[in-house]
Specification:
Length: 358
Amino acid sequence: MRRESEQLAARPVAGGAHALLEVHDLEVEIPLPHGRLHAVRGLSLQVDAGEAIGVVGESGSGKSLTLRALLGLLPHPARLTGGSILLDGVDVTGLPARRRQQVLTEAMSMVFQDSLTALNPVMRVGDQIAEVPRRRFGMSRSEAHSRAVDLMDRVGIPDPEKRFRAYPHELSGGMRQRICIAIALSAAPRLILADEPTTALDVTIQAQVLDLIDTLRRDEQLGLVLVSHDLAVVSQTCSRVYVMYAGRVVESGEARELLTGPRHPYTFALLRSVPDPDMPVHRLLTIAGQPPDLTELHRGCSFAPRCPFAQEQCTAEAAEPALVAVSGGRHNSACLRWETAPEWDGAPGPADTLESRS
Ligand SMILES: Nc1ncnc2c1ncn2[C@@H]1O[C@H](COP(=O)(O)OP(=O)(O)O)[C@@H](O)[C@H]1O
Ligand SMILES: [Mg+2]
């Protein structure tokens, strides 16, 4: 216990030199009957107060497990097997499990993709919002009620007093996601972790919900980690982006720089697979080939088998290529051949290996 209080006492004053959230070398493993699935491999990231960062990657790249690991809420049997999580520069990883989870869930709230599963179907939405301040801050029933109504108003729910008494299925998908955002805010977090928060919504509603999240982030100086498989969604909202492939960050940097000058062939392929607004809604471009089996050892770059630019050097070493700085800023790539990126455009490249799927 003493160690814990000493650690928390070491928390520097607000505005200090530390990032709000720092994650170093995070490892998540899932034991399976036939081996071990290495779902998150050496992931590091950083979020400042008021900053929005994006985490993008295909389905299965480890985005959701990363968020859950940050909250200390990994689904069984996934386990955090390495790395450290720092809040305001204080490492919380060494705290006893229950205390660690308490510290993490006090600092961060999560917004999930599917509001219907996230909400309790048999409880009025207002009560679901009021529950957190009652439990966490010991508010009276009427205080918590007004706080919930205020929050519903904040997230753009018309006539909040009336909607307080609605059940989740009585609201539209967009309104339900606003309720989920109000629940996230009700805990007065410093960071919001949003896992594909708009994927289940229609395009126009998507934009409104993203706008809402962005406004709240700015007004409340919240840190935001926005996870999406869609680079377009992330690029609208986030100043920095981390691209994940097979459990690792393969490229990171300022959103604009990364989108206009990717330095990893996987990012390049993801950019090419952004759905074209002029195309029929369900026509999506996908990247040819399959991500690697993360229960097996492989040699060198895990994207090499799908990469049209791969050469012998990419699998010559046993280890994955490390992230290296590719410019003066914070732009990093884990491609050994990042310097050849300017030749990727126009060359027979990922664009030609893309398959269309409907
Ligand atoms: N409970 C689980 N049991 C077994 N494998 C899992 C479990 N949860 C996730 N995985 C695997 O871990 C990898 C990463 O999953 P996830 O973080 O959900 O990816 P993403 O959110 O990027 O789609 C995937 O290969 C997925 O199949
Ligand atoms: Mg996911």
